[in-house]
Amino acid sequence: IIAVSPKITEISSDISINEGGNVSLTCIATGRPDPTITWRHISPKAVGFISEDEYLEITGITREQSGEYECSASNDVSAPVVQRVKVTVNYPPYISDAKSTGVPVGQKGILLCEASAVPSANFQWYKDDKRLAEGQKGLKVENKAFFSRLTFFNVSEQDYGNYTCVASNQLGNTNASMILYGE
Length: 183
Known about the structure:
The chain is mostly beta strands. It is built from no helices and 15 strands.
């Protein structure tokens, strides 16, 4: 019998899936003797193999299960061969932090809205029911992947009140209210 090193001949492509969906990954390998195939999740929390054959099925996937999955094909002929598949799990935004802030008149004030989402959230700010536009006098809006910062350069009495941050992506939106108040 001629020994042949393992070789992965077919593996699933990287995929993007909405949270709650089902994922099916495949890894086909050749070699002599027939290689043993295992799947594992590359993650700090993952322990050991999550599948000991060519197929990995995940039903009702959660955001914690996103990341890279590694297929390993091994026989005793040579070192195992490994390939990875990236699984992106999309989920609607949730706002993790939004605090009210007290600022004296004439000082700089900041309202911060932190949100987690995949794809990243788009942010909008409202005062009462009026949308705040970028470049409005005395205001600056900074949007990043995981947060939005509303800065007041010189707080006046008129700035005090109720503000709402809206975070949205293709899967949904959420909002949080906070108050800018006088010290």
